[in-house]
Amino acid sequence: MTEILIRNAEKKDLPAIQRLLSTYFLDMEELEPEDFVLAEKEGKVIGCAALIRDTSNENTFLELHSIAVHPNLRGKGIGTRLMEYLINTIDSPEMPGAQVCELYVRTTAPGFFEKLGFITMQDAEKLLIWEDCRKCEHFEKCAQHAMKYFRVS
Ligand SMILES: CC(C)(COP(=O)(O)OP(=O)(O)OC[C@H]1O[C@@H](n2cnc3c(N)ncnc32)[C@H](O)[C@@H]1OP(=O)(O)O)[C@@H](O)C(=O)NCCC(=O)NCCS
Fold first, then answer.
1. Which CATH superfamily is domain 4-152 in?
2. For 82, which of 45, 72, 107, 142 is 20 to 30 Å away at the CA?
3. With a 6 A CB cut-off, is 68 part of the ligand 1 pocket?
């Protein structure tokens, strides 16, 4: 199989990211291209994911957004490689020298995140983290599973 490169995105990658996300009717959610990491094969963007620092309910936390892999290349470990790249490059200002990793996601693909070690959050905890969930009239029948990942090494 041709080598797949995982790299940080740049401004020039914007059209390729938008194209990939639109395959799944996802949008940029006000993210910048530089918030993304990309999977690239033969010079083409075939996967993307963004990790950003959010603030909500007076908490600051890392949240994963907009992960997508090209439809023809799903199930080949590319999503996992994007996530491992992100998880392994997180810096912890609180504990220099230690690898502390805590991140959150709201997702319609909980099975994928479970395989990576994420655990499902109960509704009460979801409401504590995300203010927009608290205000959302669709909260009771929301399709988004709230999940978190925590690791110290
Ligand atoms: C979710 C997604 C990014 C996963 O990327 P991927 O490259 O296909 O995932 P991987 O090949 O690394 O899969 C790792 C494992 O997760 C499983 N998996 C992948 N997608 C899954 C899903 N949607 N539901 C349940 N399990 C899933 C795989 O079967 C694999 O299991 P295995 O290790 O037992 O073989 C990709 O399927 C995708 O682009 N989906 C459409 C967009 C989307 O739903 N994004 C999430 C919005 S938050």
1. Gcn5-related N-acetyltransferase (GNAT) (3.40.630.30)
2. 142
3. yes
Residue type for position 104: Y
The three-class DSSP label of residue 98 is coil
Name the residue among 78, 50, 82 with its Cα closest to residue 66.
50
- Tens of pLDDT, residues 86-132: 988 876 555 566 567 889 999 999 999 999 999 999 999 999 999 99
CA neighbor of 116 nearest in space, from 64, 44, 46, 71: 64
Token duo for residue 81: 């490689």
Mean pLDDT over each residue of the chain, to the nearest integer? 91
Distance CA 79, CA 87 (A): 12
Q: How far apart are CA 68 and CA 80, in angstroms?
A: 11
Structure tokens at 136: 């959302």
CA distance 110 to 126: 15
Residues 14-39 have pLDDT tens digits of 999 999 999 999 989 889 999 999 99
